[in-house]
Amino acid sequence: MTIYDFNVLKTNGERFPLYEFEGSPVLIMNTASKCKFTPQFDDMQKLYEQYQADGLKVIGFPCNQFAEQEPGTNAEAESFCQINYGVKFPIFAKVDVNGEQAHPLFDYLKKAAPFQGFDESDINAKLLKMMVSEKAPEWLVGDAIKWNFTKFLVDQQGRVVRRFEPTDSIDSIKSSIQELLQ
């Protein structure tokens, strides 16, 4: 199984088969417009611009499961990203990433790249763990996505190669992308 086995919805409700990304590395993330990590849209857009010519695709899926930080419509979420952060990569329709209503793509991603734990030496990771404990303790267990801006890097064959937590550095993401492109 690969990400090419899944279909997602565009913000207009149109079905989009992920096999259209075949042959390209893809960075997939769940997003929110009212989150502490929302400024990461800047970094993701920069990565997209830097590696787009090499085939990198970056795609976002708004999610309202974490403290209701994406309350708007699909169109509002997409527009927010474009207006406030100049996002040019695709933003798809809102999804759930955990629980019984989780989109099958995210169930696959979580199984392919399980949660590796919080980096207790990183203050931001410690703060994230505390926030999850307070606001969504049900996501602390297992491979659940812990918060918005969890990212999954997929290789050119559609296989998940790495999971990045919201507190992981842009440099670690960048170096993983560079390895894939070599």
UniProtKB/TrEMBL annotation:
One of its GO terms (biological process) is cellular response to oxidative stress. Signal peptide: none annotated. One of its GO terms (molecular function) is peroxidase activity. Keywords: Oxidoreductase, Peroxidase. Residues 1-182 form the Thioredoxin domain. The active site is at C35. The keyword Nucleotidyltransferase does not apply. Pfam families: GSHPx (PF00255). Belongs to the glutathione peroxidase family. This is Glutathione peroxidase. It comes from Paenibacillus lentus.
